[in-house]
Each structure stands twice: as C-alpha cells, then as structure tokens.
Amino acid sequence: MSGKIPVTVLTGYLGAGKTTLLNRILSEPHGKKFAVIVNEFGEVGIDNDLVVGADEEVFEMNNGCVCCTVRGDLIRIIDGLMKRKGGFDGIIVETTGLADPAPVAQTFFMDQDVQERTRLDAVVTVVDARWLALRLQDAPEARNQIAFADVLVLNKTDLVTPGELEEVERRIRAINPYAKLHRAQNANVPVAEVLDRNAFDLDRILDIEPDFLEEGHHHHHNDDIQSVAVTIEGAVNPDRFLPWLNDFAQRAGADLLRSKGILAFPGEPRRFVFQGVHMMLDGDLQREWRDDEKRASKVVFIGRGLDRDAIERAVKACAV
Ligand SMILES: Nc1nc2c(ncn2[C@@H]2O[C@H](COP(=O)(O)OP(=O)(O)OP(=O)(O)O)[C@@H](O)[C@H]2O)c(=O)[nH]1
Fold first, then answer.
1. Three-class SS of residue 92?
2. DSSP state, 236?
3. Is 298 in the pocket of ligand 1 (CB under 6 A)?
4. 193: phi > 0 → left, psi -120 to 50 → alpha, else beta; which?
5. Euclidean distance between CA atoms 194 and 182, whole angstroms
6. Distance 201 CA to ligand 1 centre (A)
7. By CB neighbour count within 10 A (0-12 exposed, 13-18 middle, 19+ buried), where does 134 fall?
8. 101 in helix, strand or coil?
9. Do residues 277 and 254 lie in contact, with contact meaning Cβ atoms separated by under 8 Å?
10. Under a CB-based contact definition with an 8 Å cutoff, are residues 266 and 241 in contact?
11. N or C: where does the chain have the smaller number of CB atoms within 10 Å of the terminal CB?
12. Cβ–ligand 1 contact at 24 (below 6 Å)
C-alpha cells in the first residue's frame, strides 16, 4: 500500500457543504500538495472558481456526472497527474451533489493503472442537517451517498434544534451505522478526521453492492432535475438582479435545489458570490477580480421543473 497516493472522494447532496469542507482542507497549514478534481452538474463551471486557490491545481470535469459519462475523464486526469514530476501527497475528488459514489469509487478498482498508483482512502459524505429528511424522500442519491460513506460530516447543525439533530442522526445511523460521524458547522471537522483515514472498506461495500467490482454498473439519475445556467459577458445591475433573485428563490423554493453565481457589478472591484439551497440565500462581495480574469457574470440554478426561458430572460434583463 505504501507509495500509493491516497484519494479522498468528497460527496454529499447539492449544497450540503462539500466545497466548504474542501476549502477548509486546502486552507489548513498542512504543507501538503493536493490535486483537486471537481465535477459539477451544470453547463457552467462555478465550483472551480469558488475553490480557494493556493498551490493546488483544480481540474474540472463538468460534462456530465462523474459517475456516468466522465469516468474516462477521471481516469485520464489521474493518469496525467501520475506522470508529473514532483507528484502529489493526495488527490481529492469532489463529486456533484447528484452523483452516486459507487461508480466513482469503482474507478479506483477497475482501471489497472489507476489502481497501481492510487488507493481510495475514504469516501467522505457531507450531510445537510436542515434538509436531510426531505432528501431521504425525494433523492435516492442522498441515501446512497450516506450508505457509502466511511466518514460522515453532519453539517449545518446551526440550522436545526437539538431535537431535530438527534432525529437526523438517528436516520443516518439507520442507513449507515459504520461510518465515523462528526457533527459540524461550516464543515469544521479536523482535517485529520477526513484525510489519510485508510478507511475505505471494500468488504463492507460488497455487502451493500455485491456487483461493485463488476463492469457495467447501471443506475438511474433523477431525470427531472435539470440545471439552467446563464452567462452574461459583463456586469449586472445589483438593484435589479438581487430583488429578482430573492423573489425567484421564494417562489421556486421547493423546486429549487441549488443556486449559485459569481457576478460583476458596475464599478465594483470585487466579485459578488451568492449561493443558496431552496429559498435560503447567502451572498457577499469576495476577492477582487484578477487582471487576467474576464469580468463576466454567471449563474446556475438546479432544480425541478424550472422555466429555463423565463430565468434566462430575467437574468439577461439585469445586464448593464
Ligand atoms: N448555515 C450554514 N450554512 C452553511 C454551512 N456549511 C455551509 N454552508 C453554506 O451552504 C452553502 C452551500 O455550501 P457548499 O460548500 O457550496 O455546498 P456544496 O455541497 O459544495 O454544494 P454543491 O457543490 O452545489 O453541491 C454555502 O452558502 C455555504 O456557505 C453550515 O454549517 N451552516
């Protein structure tokens, strides 16, 4: 096992806090060099831009879900990484919130080259304490992500009462009694509890999914979930955009699983970043635009039955 590069697969439903955890890991003074592979659902890459960039290189795969069409991409990226001089201390793969972690984990057993050079260290699943009960009703992926976890981060504990938290934990334990569980706020788990765990347990996974090591694993996505992305090659007027966004999130709330965006405002040197889960939105001005960056505005909404045309029209009407 020694000499193989540990791979951490970071999973969890849309908006649970995966990027928050990833940024926490990357910001710690651990002196290690990580390669980060981000896969997101949606035509426009936003997560890539939200990952704190220090020495890490972020590889983005946003052409579909890592658990299906882009497994070949994942293999190619890892292959490329292995050929580099200097190497890495670890690889972190952040999957889309809609990914089933099984096929992602499978990649590290199926491809011989990948298998010889890497080892799957742990599947870390971030769970949103606020919305889990709903997700267990409407999202089979959320259940699978919990079932596959070696480490569970029960996040957003600030948004529930102690009684609700107990109930959420009970429901998680009914699905996965084995994984180490950490309660967290803003994904504040010690990094040592997440990385280098040597926790991935193939035998346990074969119990859950006996055909795990067989080719041709099939699964179905929730086809009714779609993503609507709009890019504007310039700034938007905040006085028009922000009231529309708030209103839209309130109206579409139940069907709107995730929203995020990076915006340029006229005369503002900093990027405005917003994020939301259902009707709860959060946004602020963050770092300055870099000289080599195009001051464009991009937004992504992921949900059920979203009116693509109406969203596009509304966002474009805010362009200045
Ligand atoms: N109140 C609260 N908000 C949190 C917490 N952790 C993360 N958030 C916020 O929740 C939103 C989603 O967090 P992300 O880390 O982007 O979630 P994600 O799982 O990477 O989202 P996707 O990549 O879209 O699936 C952001 O606005 C975070 O600031 C928490 O513990 N409490």
1. strand
2. B
3. no
4. alpha
5. 10
6. 28
7. middle
8. helix
9. no
10. no
11. N
12. no
| pLDDT tens-digit map of 53-110 | 544 556 655 445 555 555 677 788 888 887 776 678 889 998 878 777 777 787 787 7
Residue located nearest, by CA, to atom 32 of ligand 1? 156
Q: Is 159 in the pocket of ligand 1 (CB under 6 A)?
A: yes
Tokens 């606020």 correspond to what residue? 130
Q: 134 CB contacts (<8 Å, ≥6 apart)? A: none
Encoding tokens for residue 279? Answer: 């009707």
Distance, CA 229 to ligand 1 centroid (Å)?
19
**In a mutational test of the pocket of ligand 1, which residue from 13, 20, 37, 51 has the highest number of ligand atoms less than 8 Å from its CB?**
20
Q: Is the pTM of this model over 0.80?
A: no
The residues that bridge with 180 in the sheet, in sequence order, are: 151
Residues 168/194, Cβ–Cβ less than 8 Å: no
ipTM (interface pTM): 0.98
**């590290």: which residue's tokens?**
108
CA distances 17 to 188, 189, 191, 197, 248, Å, are 10, 12, 15, 20, 22
